[in-house]
Amino acid sequence: MEEEIKKLKDEIRQKDEEIMRLKALAETKNRVFDEVSCSKEGKLSPLSQSEISRYSRQLILPEIGVAGQIALKQTSTLIVGAGGLGCPVGIYLAAAGIGEIGIVDHDIVEVSNLHRQVAHTVDSVGEEKTKSLERAIKGINPRIKCHTYTLLLNSKNIEKIIESYDIIVDASDNVPTRYLLNDAAVLFNKHLISGSALRFEGQLTVYNYLDGPCYRCLFPKPPSANAVTNCSESGVMGVITGVIGCLQALEVIKIAIGCHPSYFKKMLLFDGFSGEFRVIKLRSKQENCTVCGKDPSIKKLIDYEEFCNRSATDKIINVSLLPESDRISCVKFKEVTENGSKFLLIDVRPTNEFKICSLPNSVNIPFDKLSHENSLFELKNLVEQFDCSCNYVICRRGNDSQRAVLALQNCMPKCIWRDIIGGLQAWHHEIDSTFPLY
């Protein structure tokens, strides 16, 4: 009996979802039908000859047709992030004929962006990303209305920006902005297409669509700072951002023409290394959600950097874990290397990064292996062999080297350990500009 009741409830739920979907589809089709009817009466210009030529390959698709193309033309989309995800989103939405596109990003184009942020070129380096992406969009389709917002989006400036757009694309890939966009999407009744990419992996889902969950339904509290990494620190394969960005654009197009998005109440997990796509079913909107539930406690936007305890950028934040007495500048360390003093320099970067570039006479013992018995044995032998009054630790940016010094002070307290401030990046900027920067 209980199984039958459960089965009936599932069937009712599925029917309710289908009814909601059909209602949304009908509203879109009715709006487009009215526009097409008006065009026949001369009240609205139909698709021009150049538009028919431009969009001909998708116009002949039964799922698009004239009505769908007009719906795309009447849709506005805000892309938050003009990087690896935002570039393909912007280019493909412009190519498809989305009528109005807004671009938000606070950053400028760097050489290290070019392997994945395909709308930017060598000539764009040093330029605002929003302007560079706008130029790429106009190059694809000059008809598109494009608006740029070169700023760091926050709870104070988002309302004026978001209110005029139908669909929001989260291409930011940082936690505070993810919560900000989610809450804004719920409070201002917008659909949110969320994507992320890291290393060889990508994710995609659609939030705040019909009775589907919002981001807070799944993640009520932000993860700890130590549990989150980013592309600058862990790397990303450029193609992965392209795959996820293209799928984000496709979800926008489906919603714009009144079709059901593929990843409503689902999450796509893409493993680029194995080539596998997996889809996880997500639960429905949660009644106790703090922003979209029946009795929400969040009724206005908050300070999301404070809520998440981190900056709303994908830049790596420099930590300060050691007293000044346990640290040494690159300039001072250079003097050590030149005055004939004996020294032991441990490079705690991963081995693959050590192979990219390294300082002379440095020894590579990756940070995550420092606690291993074999590594400690090797390190103790090196300390005895070099017999230095002081030993030094370096990494890429000066964060892991500080953590390594703390660990080494605990396991080898009789030795003196010092961290080189700013790591190899500081060495590039302060000592040798020909030393590779990555």
Automatic annotation (TrEMBL):
It is found in: Cytoplasm, Cytosol. It is an enzyme of class 2 (transferase). The active site is at C231 (glycyl thioester intermediate), C395 (cysteine persulfide intermediate). One of its GO terms (cellular component) is cytosol. Residues 339-436 form the Rhodanese domain. ATP binds at G84, D105, S112, N113, L114, H115, R116, K129, D173, N174. The keyword Cytoplasm applies. Its cofactor is Zn(2+). Pathway: tRNA modification; 5-methoxycarbonylmethyl-2-thiouridine-tRNA biosynthesis. GO terms for molecular function: adenylyltransferase activity; ATP binding; metal ion binding; thiosulfate-cyanide sulfurtransferase activity; URM1 activating enzyme activity. Keywords: ATP-binding, Cytoplasm, Metal-binding, Molybdenum cofactor biosynthesis, Multifunctional enzyme, Nucleotide-binding, Nucleotidyltransferase, Transferase, tRNA processing, Zinc. Gene3D superfamilies: NAD(P)-binding Rossmann-like Domain, Rhodanese-like domain. SUPFAM superfamilies: Activating enzymes of the ubiquitin-like proteins (SSF69572). One of its GO terms (biological process) is tRNA wobble position uridine thiolation. Pfam families: Rhodanese, ThiF. It comes from the Eukaryota. Binds 1 zinc ion per subunit. Zn(2+) binds at C214, C217, C289, C292. Plays a central role in 2-thiolation of mcm(5)S(2)U at tRNA wobble positions of cytosolic tRNA(Lys), tRNA(Glu) and tRNA(Gln). Acts by mediating the C-terminal thiocarboxylation of the sulfur carrier URM1. Its N-terminus first activates URM1 as acyl-adenylate (-COAMP), then the persulfide sulfur on the catalytic cysteine is transferred to URM1 to form thiocarboxylation (-COSH) of its C-terminus. The reaction probably involves hydrogen sulfide that is generated from the persulfide intermediate and that acts as nucleophile towards URM1. Subsequently, a transient disulfide bond is formed. In the N-terminal section; belongs to the HesA/MoeB/ThiF family. UBA4 subfamily. This is Adenylyltransferase and sulfurtransferase MOCS3 homolog. It comes from Trichonephila clavata (Joro spider). The gene is AAEL004607.
